[in-house]
Amino acid sequence: MQLPVNPPVAPMLAKPVKQIPEGPYSFEPKWDGFRSIVFRDGDEVEIGSRNERPLTRYFPELVAAVRANLPPRCVIDGEIVIPAADGRHLDFEALLQRIHPAASRVALLAEQTPAHIVAFDLLALGDLDYTGRPFEERRAALVRALAPAAAPVHLTPATTDRAVATGWFRQFEGAGLDGLVAKALSGTYEPDKRVMFKVKHERTADCVVAGYRPHKSGPDAIGSLLLGLYTDPGDLASVGVIGAFPMARRKELYAELQPLVTTFEGHPWNWGQPDGAPAHEAGARNPRDGETSRWNAGKDLSFVPLRPERVVEVRYDHMEGRRFRHTTQFVRWRPDRDPRSCTYAQLEEPVSYDLGEVLATS
Fold first, then answer.
1. CA distances for 297 relative to 99, 199, 225, angstroms
2. Global confidence as pTM
3. CA angle at residue 184 from 181 to 190, to 5 degrees?
4. pLDDT by 10s per residue, the chain, length 362
5. Which residues make Cβ contacts (< 8 Å) with residue 188, sequence separation at least 6?
């Protein structure tokens, strides 16, 4: 490739803030997918990831779409996403499945769950390097460059009106989007620097602590706490973890939780017993029915079981199916809460919104 900006490039990043900032900013939806920088030089196409590793082989349908829809020589920053089967919201789980070592599986998934790419910045066009130009100019050039483009290549919606952005923040979550990104209109493109701002949805939930995993430093410190919520039939579903504690607190938690340590006999999550251990209950479920690693299907998911008697309040952004999308943050212990009262009913559900409406806004 002979472009004004050549791979690899680390994308420009955003720092989290609690509120939508006052202008002058350009506000965009925060897409929930794989951040990618797309390089095209004629028939040559390379798709780089956030960590600068190539994603090209996993998305052959996007390589074809880039050749059909992007200018012959360009570098564009964007997000790879997959719409759900009904087309109304994003499906991050389907996106995760696309990273597969087998070429035959990659080809099959490209047909079954085709990806889209949403463009939101321009680094180069033709022989011109745009990274040193203000975002306002980059956005205008990107709009012109993508004017003839069609699905699965999209231009992200953007507005300089904070009131409009505030409405998007509320509405677009129902389509599976993650919040808002704010970009200074005068800002240049700064790879690998947190010069943008992101505002994500924050909520709290009371969850049951039903186990822990030891910290990598040794068995006398907590690595993560396993969280559960009760379903309507009364089953305790595994919903996620808390994983961020100072080391001193990890050791304190270990000591505090030892009186609750139990066996897998009768524990609601007996699928978590160490590999090779016998099932404690007849008809025990497959371990992967309860919890899976999104990134490594073969990962050891065993844990130390606890009697489900303690309740913790956690902060989270949103759910993905029955689980928290990201690792939650500790807020406080809730000794006043009955564990059985920690149900899915307490969770706030975003109003449904059609993904097609979001893309049409651009």
1. 12, 31, 20
2. 0.74
3. 85
4. 899 999 999 999 999 898 999 979 999 999 989 999 999 999 999 999 888 789 999 999 999 999 999 999 999 999 999 998 888 888 888 998 999 999 999 999 999 999 999 999 999 999 999 999 999 999 999 999 999 999 999 999 999 999 999 999 988 887 878 889 999 999 999 999 999 999 988 788 999 999 999 999 888 999 999 999 999 999 999 999 998 899 999 999 999 999 999 999 889 998 766 654 443 333 333 333 344 444 344 455 689 999 999 999 998 887 877 888 888 999 999 988 899 999 998 887 676 778 888 888 87
5. 131, 132, 133, 134, 135
Domains of the chain, each with CATH number or no CATH: 13-193 (3.30.470.30), 203-346 (2.40.50.140)
Which pair of tokens denotes residue 6?
């050549």
Any catalytic annotation for residue 15? no
Cα–chain center distance at 353 = 18
| Catalytic-labelled residue, pool 15, 18, 30, 251 | 30
Q: How many residues make up the chain in this entry?
A: 362
Q: Strand, coil or helix: what is 141?
A: helix
Q: How far is CA 239 from the centre of its chain?
A: 15
> Residue 166, exposed/middle/buried by CB under 10 A (0-12, 13-18, 19+)?
middle
- Which distant-in-sequence residues (6+ apart) come within 8 Å of 180 by Cβ? 20, 27, 28, 29, 30, 165, 168, 169, 198, 199
Q: Residue 226 forms beta bridges with which residues?
A: 211, 241
